[in-house]
Specification:
The structure holds three protein chains of three kinds. Chain A contains three helices and no strands. Chain A is an all-alpha fold. Chain B is of the alpha/beta class. Chain B is built from twelve helices and eight strands. Chain B has an eight-stranded mixed sheet, sandwiched between helices. Chain B is elongated and about 85 Å long. Classes of the chains: A mainly alpha, B alpha/beta, C alpha/beta. Chains B and C meet through helix 5, helix 6, helix 7, helix 9 and helix 11 of B and helix 3, helix 5, helix 7, helix 9 and helix 10 of C.
């Protein structure tokens, strides 16, 4: 697949998902969705870090090196964010 | 040459409550477990013979369907047999995991739909094995019987089954620790005066850890628990139980001793046996020397009978030799 | 049909497995088959996925955790040391983290995870599974003979492949979607080319390994699966049950081998009573086996006068299985 075609199809995807939004909002929405998926991804693969035993960890370990920087922020977010918002409310 | 017989061992361990029989596949673990259970029942003790083997054979051994619930063995008072059915336990723990994940996703405010991940998470292949272990310790905790005899899975499986309680504890401690960190932070950050919300995950983990600790206490209690190893006078089964005994010593699980099965006895062999039989007798003699050398705690020598051991009558004959 | 002919007529079946209850002689058959194939000039590897393996005892040589050991020319044997595999794997992960981020030491939080993960109940099976993938994907041998663990675990092992496959598929899909969103955002914000997603690459590699391994297990063209049984009632009952289970996993069964058959000529001799009884009992179940499995029974292997350890006995076993050394 050429780069141009790939971008083309992504544009199609983007248009269908983000139809009606302003460019700026679209970008924010896409990033936010991606961020949320990132958390889900780490939960599914590394869940036992938080005490949620989900899956056999053998292959999770292979992915671990790539998520090292995200782990502490993720852990914080997963465990604390709601309390912070509760507290500020 | 036996220093302490099975009978003496049992008499010296009057509180013996949990007996396990292990060894390489095909050495007669199920038969020995059945014979021991029968013997305990004959002593007037309320006895449960339970199979934790993923491929059960008690129904075949007793000629009576004992799958799914403890069933009184026909014609023998006090003797119940039970092939554990893991399906219910598996369903139950699937549900538990599902609830945990859903609760967690909600708690962490993840809006992405997670259904299919929940699905794949509950397909973890370790489920069946963990479920068997859970069922086994449930039986032990319920304490409905005076004596429990477990027909264990083939060695590797059994080793893991029992080793699991140590492994689980370590694993759960780690998880409890990270949940505790999270909890205390919540307390610090909580400005509101309302009572702390329950943390179901924490509760689950603590309950789980307590269960495991209790199981470990029972399994490593020398007065209550004994693991017996069955071998044949042949190289492979001997090698397997040597390794196995080392493992159990590492885990601190009490080893009750060794039972040698399918021994060819002079009376059975007769005066002038054919070459085939002479050769087998010679081979067995050779391995018996090894057995005496490797295992100071041989408890019984059980002969090869003229038929397969099946049914209560044959178990009775086996029990007489096991507790000679 | 004989065992030797199955091999001759299906030269593309290069993955050989013996299944059945524990203690019926699967490991012995695996070793003897590898021996026979090696004699035929094929490079054959027999490997054990059982943590309580017996190959060392059969070959009378300590091969545990030593990789593939050449026993005689063309005959290789391997016993997987799962604990060691896990330790090495943990070290690889640690090294990778240190290299990627230029760290002296793996952060505590991450180190805790690496250690806790290794204590997981499913870790040992996964490690063995992964090593098996390495072995079969390697493609260094003409024949791979799996010394499988007893029934329950063989099934467990088979189901693991399909579970992992589904798991990886789902995670890969999630990751791909994530990448799409990231690219959309990058395009909208007119950013330069995005960095390639290394996790996705890693996932795709994992998926390739798993599907290669699981497809072999259920591939009728490439795999021969033999059921081992002995002429006894309880074994027969279990074998019938097990054959059904294997069919559910779509494992193609190539045939049945009956082991420990007492030599019939003994009956004519003056023999002790117990033996006469046993021969009589076996006759009954042999007839039953023939009735149940008929021409799917590929061989009846006699009970030998001693157990099978050492190359001389293995050679005799190979002759009993495949016919005399032609």
């Amino acid at each position: 697949m050429t780069e141009k075609k790939r971008k083309g199809s992504l544009w199609e995807t983007a248009k269908s998902i983000l139809y009606g939004m302003a460019g700026h909002d679209m970008a924010r929405f896409a990033l936010k969705t991606r961020g949320s998926m990132e958390h889900l991804f780490i939960l599914i693969t590394m869940g036992d870090l938080l005490g949620v035993p989900i899956l056999p960890p053998y292959y999770s370990l292979r992915l671990l090196p790539y998520v090292v920087p995200q782990i502490s922020t993720w852990k914080r977010r997963m465990l604390r964010e709601r309390d912070l918002t509760d507290a500020l409310a | 040459m036996i220093q302490e017989t099975m009978r003496q061992f049992v008499e010296e361990h009057p509180d013996l409550k949990y007996s396990f029989f292990g060894g390489k596949g095909g050495v007669g673990k199920t038969v020995m477990a059945g014979a021991a259970a029968l013997w305990f029942a004959r002593q007037g003790k309320r006895t449960l013979l339970a199979s934790t083997n993923p491929v059960h054979s008690l129904t075949g051994l007793l000629g009576q369907d004992v799958f799914g619930q403890p069933t009184l063995v026909e014609g023998v008072p006090n003797f119940w047999a039970y092939e554990i059915d893991t399906r219910d336990t598996i369903e139950r723990s699937k549900k538990e995991i599902r609830e945990k994940i859903e609760w967690f996703l909600k708690y962490a405010d993840i809006k992405t739909k997670a259904d299919e991940f929940v699905e794949s998470a509950t397909m973890n292949p370790a489920f069946e094995e963990s479920a068997m272990f859970e069922n086994m310790i449930d039986l032990m905790f319920e304490d409905d019987y005076e004596v429990y005899v477990f027909d264990t899975a083939p060695t590797a499986n059994a080793r893991r089954l029992l080793g699991m309680s140590s492994v689980y504890s370590m694993w759960v401690n780690k998880m409890v620790q990270s949940r505790e960190e999270a909890m205390s932070l919540r307390e610090l950050l909580s400005y509101s005066k309302k009572k702390q919300e329950r943390d179901p995950l924490m509760e689950y983990l603590l309950r789980f850890r307590d269960r495991m600790q209790h199981a470990k206490e029972l399994l490593t209690d020398e007065s209550k628990t004994a693991f017996f190893f069955v071998t044949l006078p042949e190289a492979l089964p001997i090698a397997v139980i040597r390794r196995f005994i080392n493992w159990f010593n590492e885990f601190g699980i009490p080893v009750g001793g060794v039972v040698v099965n399918m021994l060819l006895e002079p009376e059975a062999v007769g005066e002038n046996p054919p070459e085939f039989v002479r050769n087998r007798v010679a081979m067995q003699a050779e391995y018996m020397e090894q057995i005496w050398r490797f295992f100071p705690d041989v408890r019984a020598l059980v002969p090869l009978f003229e038929t397969e051991v099946q049914g209560v009558e044959m178990l009775e004959r086996t029990a007489q030799r096991l507790f000679a | 049909m004989s065992l030797a002919r199955i091999f001759q007529e299906n030269p593309e079946r290069r993955y050989i497995m013996f299944g059945g209850k524990g203690g019926l002689g699967k490991t012995t058959f695996s070793a003897a088959t590898a021996y026979w194939l090696a004699q035929q000039g094929y490079r054959a590897l027999v490997f054990s996925v059982d943590p309580q393996a017996s190959l060392s005892d059969i070959f009378q040589q300590d091969i545990f955790g030593k990789g593939a050991v050449e026993i005689i020319p063309n005959l290789f044997a391997q016993e997987i040391d799962a604990d060691r595999r896990i330790r090495e794997y943990q070290d690889e992960i640690r090294q990778k983290i240190r290299d990627m981020y230029g760290l002296e030491k793996v952060p505590d939080e991450i180190e805790d995870y690496i250690q806790a993960a290794a204590a997981e109940p499913a870790m040992e099976e996964s490690a063995i599974f992964d090593q098996v993938v390495d072995i079969v994907v390697g493609g260094e041998y003409d024949y791979y003979i799996y010394d499988l663990v007893p029934l329950g675990h063989a099934l467990y092992y088979l189901s693991m492949a399909s579970v992992y496959d589904q798991w990886i598929q789902k995670i890969t899909k999630l990751r791909e979607e994530m990448e799409e969103y990231a690219q959309v955002a990058a395009l909208l914000q007119r950013e330069d080319e995005m960095e390639e997603d290394k996790i996705l690459a890693e996932l795709q590699d994992i998926r390739y390994r798993i599907s290669t391994s699981s497809s072999i297990l259920t591939d009728r063209e490439k795999t021969a699966f033999f059921f081992v049984l002995v002429p006894e009632e309880m074994v027969l009952v279990d074998t019938k049950k097990a054959a059904g289970l294997f069919a559910k996993f779509q494992v193609p069964i190539s045939g049945y081998i009956v082991n420990r058959v007492l030599p019939p000529e003994l009956e004519a001799q003056e023999i002790p009573e117990y033996l006469r009884h046993r021969i009589h009992m076996q006759k009954k179940y042999l007839a039953e086996i023939d009735r149940l499995f008929g021409n799917e029974v590929l061989a009846r292997i006699p009970e030998f006068e001693r157990d099978i350890t050492g190359l001389d006995m293995i050679q005799r076993m190979a002759e009993a299985m495949f016919g005399g050394a032609a």
